[in-house]
Amino acid sequence: MAEKYPVLDGAEAFFFKGNDIGILISHGFIGTPQSVRYLGEGFAKQGFTVLGPRLHGHGTHYKDLEECTNHDWFQSLEKGYQQLRLHCHSIFVIGQSMGGTLTLWLAKRYPDIKGIITVNAALEVPSYEYLKGKIEPRFLNESAPDLHAKDVVEIAYPKVPIKAIHELQKLMEKTPSILPDIQSPVLGIHSAVDHVVPPANTDYILRNIGSSIKERVVLQNSYHVASMDYDKDVIVSSGIGFIEQLLSSSPISP
């Protein structure tokens, strides 16, 4: 499905060319690359090559999102992975919220991914549960982004299509079944308080994923959109530490 609306200013994908270690970063549902750009810049400062794709139907108009399936969103991330492979011999993937869910699927399809980092990954969104099986209203008003910091503006849609919510629910519901098949090392980052995705989602992922290397970081001063919140530097520093630890423990030949 071709998008009918132009990309909003500031919602574009980003790419920072660095060394041959690639970092792929995915934003979440109704968000844009703007929400994870700070993370991307942090990893780029360490010399990594970083790509933050824009998921299809996001960052334009919510009517574009209405026409998308969760397969479209996965394909957007997969294309980013394939693009990074042209520049890098080793790739790590980071995903926030639904982006974390998509990251799990990418790791299932590509076992050569060196490690994954999920940030408040979504297996359920309780506030959407009542919409299962419903077809109306066509669009719902979206609440303000869940941020502890009050001086932050996230580019996000003011409305969300019910069809898109159903696609998100389909994605989340089928994800637990693939967790045992994922072998990539995983760092599960979650906020201590998240008003959108219960922290128990990350607990479940870490408990059931097939990875032999599992680590956890709890953010004490951020809510759901942690990549833009008070602990965003904690995400960067812990992510860099996780990646460097994996690289040093398993040297990779150029």
Characterise this structure.
This protein has helices at residues 37-45, 62-66, 70-85, 98-109, 162-174, 200-208, 232-249; strands spanning 14-16, 21-26, 49-52, 90-96, 115-119, 139-141, 159-161, 186-191, 214-219. The protein has 254 residues and is of the alpha/beta class. The protein is globular and about 50 Å long.
Give a nutshell description of this structure.
The chain is α/β, with parallel strands linked by helices and 254 residues long.
Distance between the termini: 38 Å
Largest sheet: 7 strands, mixed
Bin the helical content: 25-40%
List how many beta strands DSSP finds.
9
| Overall pLDDT confidence | 96
Binned strand content? 15-25%
Give the CA-based shape.
globular
The CATH topology turns out to be Rossmann fold
State the helix count.
7
Please trace the helix and strand order, writing H or E for each element.
Answer: EEHEHHEHEEEHEHEH
* Spatial extent as radius of gyration: 17 Å
Structural class: alpha/beta
**What is the correct CATH architecture?**
3-Layer(aba) Sandwich
Please tell me the total number of domains.
Answer: 1
CATH superfamily: Alpha/Beta hydrolase fold, catalytic domain
Report the top-level CATH class: Alpha Beta
Task: Give the low-confidence spans.
Answer: none
Spatial ordering of strands, largest sheet: 1-3-2-4-5-8-9
